[in-house]
Input
Amino acid sequence: MISSKNDPDYIFEEYKGYTIASHKNNVVGKDTDNLIIVYRPNEFPNFGFIIGLDDSKLSGRRKSVPHNMDDAKAYIDWAVNIRQKQSENKRVQPKPKKGKGRKR
Output
């Protein structure tokens, strides 16, 4: 698939330490061939998360653009926020105290 950030078939953008790769042949509208991939730091090019269009009508009409970096950035913001909350929860939770066992 992608081997380097010099791949001529992709547009690359860095955002909050993540790499967004958008295929240059993406077209306007929902298309199964549209490809936008988000890579976490230190996981490029081996592991990425493919960002797709939201087809639900619950969120209202969406503007479909071929290189929808806004969706990719929204995913990154969400992922960063979740990781931050998980990290905070780990720091806040007190560790259980080791109780002294009763001798019989």
Observations:
- The first helix runs from residue 69 to 92.
